[in-house]
Amino acid sequence: MKPLKSGAVIGILGGGQLGRMLASAGAQLGFDVSILCPEDRCPAARTAAQHVRSSYEDAAAVLEWARGCDVITYEFENVPVRTVQTLVAAGITVRPGAKPLQASQDRVAEKTFLRACDIATADFAEVNGPGDIAAPLDRFGGNGILKTRRDGYDGKGQLRLEAGDDFDAAHKALGNHPAILEALVPFEREVSVIIARGAVGDMLCYDLPRNQHVNGILQRSVVPCGLSDAVIKQACDAAQRLAGALDFIGVLALELFVLEDGSLIANEFAPRVHNSGHWTPEACATGQFEQHIRAVAGWPLGPVTRFHDAEMLNLLGEEAFVPPKTLTADGVLTLYGKHDAKPGRKMGHLVRRLGPAT
Ligand code: AMP
Hints:
- The chain is of the alpha+beta class.
- It folds into three domains: 9-94, 3-Layer(aba) Sandwich (Rossmann fold); 123-183, ATP-grasp fold, A domain (Dna Ligase, domain 1), CATH 3.30.1490; 189-356, D-amino Acid Aminotransferase, Chain A, domain 1.
- It is 25% helix and 28% strand.
- The chain is built from ten helices and 17 strands.
- Strands 9, 10, 11, 12, 13, 14, 15, 16 and 17 form a nine-stranded antiparallel β-sheet that branches. Strands 3-2-1-4 form a four-stranded parallel β-sheet, with helices on both faces. It has a four-stranded antiparallel β-sheet with strand order 5-8-6-7.
- The two termini are 39 Å apart.
- Bound molecules: adenosine monophosphate (AMP).
- Adenosine monophosphate binds at residues 122, 145, 152, 155, 182, 184-185, 190, 213, 216, 267-268.
């Protein structure tokens, strides 16, 4: 595909806050962004040039929409692989393609793919019934996390387990879905690599944020992450191997646990812009949303130079509507336009400058 001209149409599968911020970045670069999402008034639909309502499974409707776009991308990893394969088979350019979805939708496939890229992961075992838990849990030293293989996010679909727990009840609590048992990683900190890979295979890594989670939900990301240059290089090298192996075009996030001795263990990756990169538009020469749009449009990547230290605070549930904490806060506020502030739901974020770049 030739680089797109300003005025071309970029189609995005998915209509959440990531699509909303991608649509704004696309508009800034002169593109018309068209959102395909089943929900009425989804966050992205209200900043995009066009919104087509359709289920992601309706191949004919998705194909008709895609034919009106110059390139297609996605903003969440649970887009059906078959839908993307249908588009590709019809000659439509989808960036990134089906491979990153296939590799990231299932936690067993994901860990297997990471290991094939020479990236360490936690020990794990497949769990198809409660009888599959005791032996690997014992092997992992009696502590583990049971997660559904598919569709888990923000700490949903996962449970900590210890030897002696009621495994029948645990598996039932996860809906008896196919699951994975992971060894509990005794991490010292969590970081992520936000990496961009352009249409010609060039790659740039942003400075790594350190990520703090509460109940499995990202609460705060801060840059710099405080790791040595050597560990940061290892993390970026791992992300480059992953992005290369996926033939990735766009922005990708690799989430890593860091152990006391500086060794790295991958938790998971997201084939899309990422919550832990939300500080980049304010703190860097090119934000992650603009970067993704540039990559999928076939434009050169922009510089990822960071101008200052920063923290990003997620605003969850009603928090986003309480004026003292948000409207009067010192920092750049982004709200996603969601109407329903369920507890724990990501409603917006705040980026605060912490001082000159260190
Ligand atoms: P996930 O949904 O896999 O991204 O997990 C959410 C958060 O739970 C992670 O960011 C960690 O803080 C924690 N977590 C997940 N898996 C593990 C693990 N195997 N060992 C220790 N902590 C974990």
